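To fix ideas, we now present one chain and its tokenised fold:
***
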Amino acid sequence: SVYKDEEATRLRASITLSEVTAVASVRSPRSNRQYVFGVFSPSKNYRFQSSSEKDAEDWIRHIRSETRMNE
């Protein structure tokens, strides 16, 4: 489930983990945003920005673990 921030109560998106095909760091030559990672599925791709490189790596590791991509 995706919310705007920690205080938000309105759901912005819901990602079905069984449909996730990849999770990875994303770098764009057209953007100077840092710590961005993507969650990819056949129906939709999502990009998220975390507060640090370690935080992004933690998100990637946890999502991969929950989707069992490393097995």
